[in-house]
Design goal:
Blueprint: H1 3-18, H2 31-35, H3 39-53, H4 59-63, H5 68-83
Helix pairs in contact: 1-3, 1-5
Length: 84
C-alpha cells in the first residue's frame, strides 16, 4: 500500500473515530498531545487500525510513535512486514 493511501485512510479514521480536527493533523505534530487519547482510546485505535489495514499495533509500537509521521511509518512498516 502506498504511503499516501495510508495517510488518507489514517487521517479519515482519526477525524471520524477520534473526533480530531483535520487541521490539527500534521506530519510533525505530536501524535499523543494532538489526539489526547486515554488508554481505552488506544485499544479502540488498535481495533480501527486492524480493521483498516489488516495489521495489529502493540504497546511497543505506540511507544515509538512521537509524531503523525512516525504513526504513518509504523503502519507502513507493519504492512510491509506482513506482505514480505
Amino acid at each position: 500500500m502506498e504511503k499516501e493511501k495510508i495517510i488518507t485512510i489514517a487521517n479519515d479514521f482519526l477525524v471520524n473515530e477520534f473526533e480530531v480536527d483535520r487541521d490539527d493533523i500534521a506530519n510533525d505534530a505530536n501524535f499523543k498531545t494532538t489526539l489526547g487519547l486515554d488508554s481505552l482510546d488506544y485499544i479502540d485505535m488498535v481495533v480501527v487500525i486492524e480493521s483498516n489495514f489488516g495489521v495489529k499495533l502493540g504497546e511497543a509500537d505506540f511507544k515509538k510513535v512521537i509524531t503523525f509521521e512516525d504513526f504513518y511509518n509504523t503502519i507502513e512498516q507493519k504492512i510491509s512486514e506482513k506482505t514480505a
